Amino acid sequence: MGLFSLFNVPKNASRSAIKTLKLKRHIIKILITEGNYTIVDLSNKTYFSVPTVTKVINSLLKDNIVLDLGKIDTSGGRRPNLYGINSKSGFFLGIEVNRKFLTIGLQDLKNEFVKINERIPFELSETHGSLSELCSRINEFVEASGIDRRNIIGACVNLSGRINSVKGYSYNYFYIEEDSLSHTISTQIGINTYLENDTRAMAFGEYNCGVVNGEKNVIFVNMSWGVGIGIITDGQLYYGHSGYSGEFGHSPLFDNNILCQCGKRGCLETEVSGWALERIFKDAIREGNISLAGNADNMESIENIDLERIINAVVMDEDTLAIDIISALGEKMGRYISLLINVFNPELVVIGGIMSTVGDYLMLPILTAIKKYSLNLVSQDMELKLSSLGSHAGVAGACYIVRKKFMEQLD
Ligand SMILES: [Zn+2]
Q1: 255 CA distance to ligand 1 centroid (A)?
Q2: In a domain, 208, yes or no
Q3: Cα–ligand 1 centroid distance for 378 (angstroms)
Q4: Could you list the residue range(s) of the whole structural domain that residue 77 is in?
Q5: Staple 410 to which of 29, 183, 322, 352, CB 3.0 to 4.6 Å?
C-alpha cells in the first residue's frame, strides 16, 4: 500500500472512510511541507481528535509512509513521539530533453536527488523512432534506479518550444501522434507524465532550490541553443493565456534578414543564442580569425565546430576569439534584458542555460548593458545572478512540478 492508495476511493466507500482518507492526505501534506510533528501537534493543526489522528498515524506507519522518529525532549511529563514522512515512500521523476542528450533525475519526497544521469545519448527528431527511444531511455533509467515504479508519483518531461502543459501537447517536437504526448509517454513508461517547457522548468528549479532566495518576482533567462525566459510573478510561474509565455527569443528585434528556426526573420535568437554563436564563430574563422577551436585552412575543422566546443574554448583554453564573440553576444543580450526589466520590474534576473557556463565573460557584459540601457529607477534594486543549479536546473524543476501537482491532489 503506497501513496497511490490515497487516491483510490472505492465506489461504495462510507462517508467516514472518505473523511479518514482526506485526513490522511492532509497529514501527509503537513509532514511533507512543514516537517515533523507529534500527534498532539497534528491534532491541533487538523482540528481532529487525538484518538482519530492516532488511528491515521498508525495506519500510515503500517504502510511505511510515515516514520516514528522516537521521543522528543520535553521539560517534564510524558515525552511524546515525533512523526515524520518517510521520504523514500514516494519519488518524482524529471526528464530534460536536449537535442543530443537527455538528463534524467529522480528525487525523493524531500526533493533530494536519489539518482541523476546527465548526458544520456539521444537524438531529438520529429520521428516515432526518437519518441520511442526517449521512452526506452526513461525505462532503462527507472530500472537501473532499483525503485519500484509504483512508488514514482509522476514524471515531468521538459521540451523546448511551445508546450501546452494542461492538455499535454508539444507543438515543436513529437507533434506526430493524435493522442497527447503526455498520454503517449505515460502509457509507455507506466508513470503518470506531465509536459513542461524547458525554460519554465529551469526557472522553477532555480526558484525552489537554486539561486532564488525568497525573491517573488523573477525573470530566468535560458541562454542555450535557443533563448527563452521563465517568468515568476508573486511566487507563481506565469504561463500566459494558452501556456506559451516566455518566447522572448522570437522577438523581432533585428532587420538582419536572417531566417530564424521559427520561420520568421530577424528574431532575437538569430543574433543572440547558441545557434547564432555557432554561426558567428564559424564565419569569423572562415574570415581568417585565429582560434584553437578551428582554422580557416581546414574546412573539416570548421564544420566540426559546435556550441560545446566554443564554450570549452572559452572555459578551458581562454580562447580570445571565442571570448570576444561571447562577450559581444552578452552585451546584446543585456540590452534586451533591459527591455524585460523595464516591462516587468523584477527583483532578480537569473542567467542560466549552456551558454551561462562561461560565467563572467557573459555576465559582466550583460550587467554593463543593463546599467547602460535600463531605466535606473527600475533596475537599481534589481540583482543579476548566475544560475546555481547549472545543468541540473531543468530536472530539479521538473521534479518540483510533479511535487506541486501531487500537493494539489492532496488538498
Ligand atoms: Zn524566431
Answers
A1: 13
A2: no
A3: 28
A4: 3-87
A5: 29
